[in-house]
């Protein structure tokens, strides 16, 4: 026969968490979250910039990865803390949306958390700190648009090439940055579109497709100003390239 535990036996324990459970809240949780965020940032701090140090990572299978890309380093790490996972997801989102700046966003986010924790220790409510951060973000964006933003048309090709070289410096393509930078600039410039009503110039980057084929070296890559199909010819007599006015028709099923 089992008897229900007495009130004295359950003192200090939240019944909703089980017999051996405990709940942590307040300053202890905030300190743990900030500590986890700073620990993640410290691991990739030395890899910031084109002259950053490379990291050698060894996984459970014995595979070795050498890189100084922030997103790649964080993806290979087994981060379990919830606050640390948020920074890992932040770096992945930055990499998928922009393709660069993964290390910078993690360092900025961790520094904002550290400064916010210092303000909380001084007695300022977290809601007030968040409001201040949002106000600072709007003012920073406004200042950048009014004083620092430059029209891409006035930069010139060489400035675009330098930007691409800086981005490629931390990737596997850093062995030949001029070749890949020239290809990237050509691909983006070929997507130039002018609105006939507003004369606004735009570059729809998502219209650029990347076709990967095995069998040749990376230096044999080229920009195709047209439409490419990643498929196999049904016959060797079929042409590999079509030029001029081409009409494509499909049969309705």
Question: What secondary-structure arrangement, pairings included, does this model have?
Answer:
Elements: H1 27-44, E1 55-58, E2 64-67, H2 70-76, H3 82-97, H4 102-121, H5 126-148, H6 157-168, H7 177-189, E3 193-194, E4 201-202
Antiparallel strand pairs: 1-2, 3-4
Helix pairs in contact: 1-3, 1-4, 2-3, 3-4, 6-7
Give the beta-strand count.
4
**What radius of gyration results from the CA coordinates?**
27 Å
* Strand percentage: under 5%
Please give the count of helices: 7
SSE series: HEEHHHHHHEE
Strand line-up of the largest beta sheet: 1-2
Structural class: mainly alpha
Low-confidence stretches: 1-13
**For the terminal residues, how far apart are their CA atoms?**
72 Å
Looking at the structure, what is the overall shape? globular
The oligomeric state of the chains shown is single chain
**Rounded mean pLDDT score:** 80
- Main sheet attributes: strand count, strand direction, barrel closure: 2 strands, antiparallel
Measured as a percent range, the helix fraction is 40-55%
